[in-house]
Amino acid sequence: MPLTLAELAGRINAELRGDGDIVVSSVATLQQAGAGQLGFLANPKYRRQLATTRASAVILAEKDVRFCPVPVLVTDNPYAGYALAAALLHPRRSPKAGIHPSAAINASAQVDKSARVDAFCVIRAGARIGPRVHIGPGSVIGEKVTVGAESRLVARVTVLAHARIGERVLLHPGVVIGSDGFGMAEVDGQWRKVPQLGSVRIGDDVEIGANSTVDRGALDDTVIENGVKIDNQVQIAHNVFIGAHTAIAGCVGISGSARIGRHCTLAGGVGVVGHIEIADHVHITGMSMVTRSIHRPGSWSAGTPLMETSRWRRSAVLMKQLDKLARRVAELEKNMENK
Amino acid sequence: MPLTLAELAGRINAELRGDGDIVVSSVATLQQAGAGQLGFLANPKYRRQLATTRASAVILAEKDVRFCPVPVLVTDNPYAGYALAAALLHPRRSPKAGIHPSAAINASAQVDKSARVDAFCVIRAGARIGPRVHIGPGSVIGEKVTVGAESRLVARVTVLAHARIGERVLLHPGVVIGSDGFGMAEVDGQWRKVPQLGSVRIGDDVEIGANSTVDRGALDDTVIENGVKIDNQVQIAHNVFIGAHTAIAGCVGISGSARIGRHCTLAGGVGVVGHIEIADHVHITGMSMVTRSIHRPGSWSAGTPLMETSRWRRSAVLMKQLDKLARRVAELEKNMENK
Amino acid sequence: MPLTLAELAGRINAELRGDGDIVVSSVATLQQAGAGQLGFLANPKYRRQLATTRASAVILAEKDVRFCPVPVLVTDNPYAGYALAAALLHPRRSPKAGIHPSAAINASAQVDKSARVDAFCVIRAGARIGPRVHIGPGSVIGEKVTVGAESRLVARVTVLAHARIGERVLLHPGVVIGSDGFGMAEVDGQWRKVPQLGSVRIGDDVEIGANSTVDRGALDDTVIENGVKIDNQVQIAHNVFIGAHTAIAGCVGISGSARIGRHCTLAGGVGVVGHIEIADHVHITGMSMVTRSIHRPGSWSAGTPLMETSRWRRSAVLMKQLDKLARRVAELEKNMENK
What we know:
Three copies of one chain form a homotrimer. Chain A is α/β, with parallel strands linked by helices. The first copy, chain A, is about 15% helix and about 30% strand. The radius of gyration of chain A is 26 Å and the shape is flat. Chains B and C meet through strand 22, strand 23, strand 38, strand 39 and helix 3 of B and helix 2, strand 40, helix 3 and helix 4 of C. Strand 39 of chain B pairs antiparallel with strand 40 of chain C.
């Protein structure tokens, strides 16, 4: 949807410097942008691309204005301004309401008239699909599941266990919500399944990436609060609680009954053991394992640095013998004193 | 299904202390339970909840009886007793037999009359679906696959490569069984695919979690023995062997031709390299990498402890320079001798 | 397809020693092979199986000929020779052209007459499906997606975001191509979605394993070059570039805008942070985290060795106190000088 720079500046709350009548109709990188396109500069690494950009305008911060030869939209948070501008210039088409004739919908399910249900979907007894919801092709909505207004299940999404999905939730292909938790009791060396009877509650404005999984609680519910963003291939076990506005990157695994605070970030590949608590505003760096509760805000890490394999092999031998090295140092200290 | 405490005590082999005529009809946590509900205490962390529980009865161990103000079912293994009681009070409904009219079933496939096949399933030539099996919606059963009695494929499960699935097997949504193994030969810097011709054999009473994958063998079969329990997003490569009653938590990856013993546990995020053997009764802690065979029972670990990032950075520098530190200690030892 | 050893030797460019009229019709391991079957020896670990093999012939290297009691096909690269022989003896059946009547295909999509589309597939507006392509059951092909000749989507594959898939590409069950990247801008402690507008380009002869995910670019495309091989449950974030003939094993995660060179190998469970570059011919060992750019070929590692848990616990304490140990050594050095 084309907009003048003047309109855009008003909508994203930026200060325009340049001709407000110029029209832009799409976004692009500084390098790729051409006439009618809007660029942005949020990462200083790309500042040198300003000089040669052919964008019609650029969103950037005050400190970069002087490097930019084309009209600018100045804002304190250029990345957020860009996000908003991109959403305005590239609005999602509302899904056309309607139910594909192939969809298998139980008579007792309630599908709002404004919702869209695509081909080969299954919607079971007692499910409720809210206004303007889009259930993409091949999705399975289990008994008594509710999906709030304007949520979108892109394709091949499964929601079971009476889960309640909030409004404006976005579930990407292959997501599974409400699968059984991994609950077993050992009896004479064999595993007896512990029935998984809880549900899943997902707040508003949550996004969950492709092929991620969220198990139902064992008794109480697994809970994901408002505004949580989850990337692809993340595993959330039974009875996990994730506080509002926390972001979880790809390939993270969170074990049962772990409680993650609000406004946390878990970088890619992080693992969290079960039954621990993480405070609000905690940040975990990539591939770290959280083995105990964290009671105060801050950034936490684990792991060893990358080395050339030949050198790493020598280092690994020494890691195994750290106790020996420590004993040798203690021995030296004793000898030193005796001299 | 409501039961009296007397009936329940008999069925789970627990000792009743209290009024045997009291009826319970569902399970709940000590904190949430109300009248007609059965609680349990398996983790000492929750003992203090006994005092205020409103459960009609509680399953617990002898040592906790004195803390409990309501009737109790006493057993040596309260968690196992709870698992059994929960299964009795919340029995799974048997699936109604029948084939959804949309299912695409090859004429040469054999589906038992007591089985259930849901909407949008594909069952190919020569497949055999046993008694009381439930094939959930959107599942794909490849040629000559067999699924044993009372197994349940919850939804959107794919089984290929002539795989043989045992009885009472539970496959959660998104599971893929029998995909090609990652077999390639390098020829002049390019990868030539090695045809994957083996199959997958899965024993009885196996459970596999959402979006987990089990590749077919390259020539011989990938084998998962009876009673193995596998969590979500686990990857089992070609020709892996997993011994009976082993449990594998979420996000584990097992490389080709690894052989895992019986009664092992692999915690979340563990990785196992290819072509190694792990003995029976081996336990691997979370996110450890198993790089060589383990020939005796026991618990094994790898990884570094979680630290505040600022401190971890200093520590990481030292990890890279362990060889230098070791040389300095050796030098000191030499000097000390010469003094 | 049965072949004589003479024919086979010619086709795989091996030297035959033995009766060229012998016919083989399938491949097997040295241990399992019987009459009419072809074995191979590529891993010295299995050499002792030669003596007792009942294979009709064996593919092996010159150095192993003297251990083999049956006819041999001698080649410098027995594993590559085997791969080729297996493909000749076990050719994939070409899929029968045709569109399953249940498939939901938009009128403006172009499906080549020689292509096959299985049950419950969705093909949206403007998509183009090339010659001899096989779209397996339950797959979803989004708007304007193109799939090149002879590619095969095994089952339940999702391709969105106008992605362009090359020729002879093999996508295993559960693969998702073109899901939204994980792009968010923080505004007042909440996450604002950054519209994901780019696409995905996948070259020829690429293979992607079960339940792997490849996100669309934010603005520019995510690119996977020719001949790249990707195993199961791999996550490729937005705007990643993967150079030709690179192989990526299971459970790898690659963060946004990372650029991986050609002819690289990433072993299982590796993680790569975003916005870095890895040169051609770089090899990363299992479960290592790549935290910075790598500018020259070679092998790189991270992680700690596996230890018995009791010993690892002591070692972990020392890892946390490496700075203290280093200070003690420095102190000793100072004292030594002063003596």
